[in-house]
């Protein structure tokens, strides 16, 4: 009889903070830019240069800590983590080992079976990012770009509380939404502003002893993380079943080949020879400072979800979708404030907006149209100025170019024809030209009515008032 195994997973999540400048100098943190153009003596590790802490980094770290139920370490400090790597200009990284800024937190997730579960957060610490090695295969060399060196990070270290890829994704999604709502980071995995290292081990079901863990790096999408977890779980089980030992090591995941390979044996804290950074003073966080950060916390997703259902009377499904990204929630609230029609705003965002995002392979964060123009479009439909099919065509232009719908409808002559005389003339011609459909209608075939309405709309280039068309058609057919 084959043994049952349990997977034990803990995560180290690195998040690039949304500050305009780096953690210890005034260089830009903007993504992209020519190699080594966002650099200075401090972030390139020049001798004699001294770091100065960016206060906004501390406030973002505190905000994330408070939102994840952590204790704030009122007296925290920075340490040097010593290691030698070409993209690490000082040959050490400034981080926090002994007194991290946040400790003992937790976030609640929903498991696959619909139950609630808390995932513990061991600590959150502040640190600087390293540079980036670029491997040039044509020249057969590696070159280094220090633009990322010194970009502020927080590292969120979980407890080993997750038991499946689904729980890992639920936890990461919860963290991502909290951090995005706080404005502390955009958390774009594809740009590296949120990165997760997966620590995974397996053990026999029912055992309380941890197995030997491995750490997997280079995971830049939720799908890659799920695939890597499944692969590593099976690899470790195969080793155990074959009577071999799992080696504690760091592995690199290749998502194209769906395979991981060993990078190096896993270091422990003593291997990094940590010691307090002598160039940075300890950080004292007063109760008043914590209260100021707490008071500035925005409404997070959980509260928004409940409010959308009570205040705007939206169904739970609508509220789930709209609060699923901060961008959609922001557009929904701004548009609703202008037009006062929450359900109609929700319908446009969940219908046409989501359709176009999917078609164009875009994320909600990529939306560029203004709430004013969406509110104006809803107003044009409600006033009967345009009908719903024209509105959908106009919305596609708004989505792409953020045009003013009122001006566009006027210029393109898209206003609904409400002239009963002109409509009657067109409909009479349609009725006379389609005697078979008229006969079918009189024989009880309701589809014939739909055909005649369609022919009228086609003749009027989609600009007829549908209610008026139906009314006139029924009147003529009843004679």
How is the biggest beta sheet arranged? 9 strands, mixed
- Low-confidence runs of at least 5 consecutive residues: none
Spatial strand order of the main sheet: 2-6-7-10-1-11-12-13-14
Helix content: 25-40%
Shape: elongated
Classify the beta-strand content into a percent band: 15-25%
* Rg of Cα set: 30 Å
State mean pLDDT (0 to 100 scale).
Answer: 90
Distance between the termini: 81 Å
Subunit structure: Heterotrimer of A, B and C subunits.
GO molecular function: ATP binding; glutaminyl-tRNA synthase (glutamine-hydrolyzing) activity
InterPro entries: Asn/Gln-tRNA_amidoTrfase_suB/E, Asn/Gln-tRNA_Trfase_suB/E_cat, Asn/Gln_amidotransferase, Asn/Gln_tRNA_amidoTrase-B-like, GatB, GatB_C_1, GatB_Yqey_C_2, Gln-tRNA_amidoTrfase_suB_CS
Enzyme class: ligase
Secondary structure layout:
Layout: E1 5-16, H1 55-67, E2 71-72, E3 75-76, E4 79-82, E5 92-95, E6 102-110, E7 116-128, E8 132-136, E9 141-145, E10 152-158, H2 165-182, E11 194-204, E12 214-217, H3 222-241, E13 249-254, E14 259-265, E15 275-276, E16 283-284, H4 287-295, H5 301-311, H6 316-322, H7 326-339, H8 342-359, H9 371-382, H10 388-401, H11 405-412, H12 420-433, H13 435-442, H14 447-459, H15 466-477
Parallel strand pairs: 12-13
Antiparallel strand pairs: 1-10, 1-11, 2-6, 3-16, 4-5, 4-15, 6-7, 7-10, 8-9, 11-12, 13-14
Helix pairs in contact: 2-3, 7-8, 7-9, 9-10, 12-14, 12-15, 13-14, 14-15
């Amino acid at each position: 009889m084959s043994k049952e195994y349990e997977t034990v997973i803990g995560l180290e999540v690195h998040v690039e903070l949304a500050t305009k400048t780096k953690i210890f100098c005034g260089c830009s943190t903007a993504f992209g830019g020519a190699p080594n153009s966002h650099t200075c003596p401090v972030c390139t590790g020049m001798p004699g240069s001294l770091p100065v802490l960016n206060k906004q980094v501390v406030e973002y770290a505190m905000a994330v800590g408070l939102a994840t139920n952590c204790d704030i370490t009122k007296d925290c400090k920075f340490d040097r983590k010593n290691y030698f790597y070409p993209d690490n200009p000082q040959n050490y990284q400034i981080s926090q080992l002994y007194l991290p800024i946040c400790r003992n937190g937790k976030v609640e997730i929903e498991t696959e079976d619909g139950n609630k579960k808390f995932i513990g957060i061991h600590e959150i610490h502040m640190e600087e990012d390293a540079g980036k090695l670029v491997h040039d295969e044509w020249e057969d060399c590696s070159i280094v770009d220090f633009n990322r060196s010194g970009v502020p990070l927080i590292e969120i270290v979980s407890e080993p509380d997750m038991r499946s890829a689904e729980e890992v994704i639920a936890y990461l999604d919860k963290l991502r939404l909290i951090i995005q709502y706080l404005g502390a980071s955009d958390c774009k995995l594809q740009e590296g502003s949120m990165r997760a290292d997966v620590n995974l081990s397996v053990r026999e079901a029912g055992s309380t002893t941890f197995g030997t863990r491995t750490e997997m790096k280079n995971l830049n999408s939720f799908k890659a993380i799920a695939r890597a977890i499944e692969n590593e779980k099976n690899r470790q089980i195969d080793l155990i079943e074959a009577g071999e030992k799992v080696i504690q090591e760091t592995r690199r995941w290749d998502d194209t080949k769906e395979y991981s390979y060993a990078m190096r044996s896993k270091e422990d804290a003593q291997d990094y020879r940590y010691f307090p950074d002598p160039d940075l003073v300890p950080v004292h966080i007063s109760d008043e400072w914590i209260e100021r950060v707490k008071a500035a916390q925005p409404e997070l997703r959980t509260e928004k979800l409940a409010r959308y259902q009570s205040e705007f009377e939206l169904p739970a499904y609508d509220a789930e979708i709209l609060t699923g990204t901060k961008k959609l929630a922001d557009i929904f609230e701004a548009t609703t404030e202008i037009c006062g029609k929450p359900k109609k705003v929700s319908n446009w965002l969940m219908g046409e907006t989501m359709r176009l995002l999917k078609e164009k392979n875009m994320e909600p964060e990529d939306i560029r149209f203004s709430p004013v123009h969406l509110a104006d479009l809803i107003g044009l439909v409600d006033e009967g100025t345009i009908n719903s099919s024209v509105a959908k065509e106009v919305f596609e232009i708004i989505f792409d170019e953020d045009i003013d719908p009122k001006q566009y409808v006027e210029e393109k002559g898209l206003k609904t024809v409400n002239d009963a005389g002109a409509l009657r003339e067109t409909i009479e011609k349609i009725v006379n030209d389609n005697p078979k459909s008229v006969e079918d209608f009189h024989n009880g075939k309701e589809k014939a009515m739909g055909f005649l309405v369609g022919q009228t709309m086609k003749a009027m280039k989609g600009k007829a008032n549908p209610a008026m068309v139906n009314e006139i058609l029924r009147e003529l057919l009843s004679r």
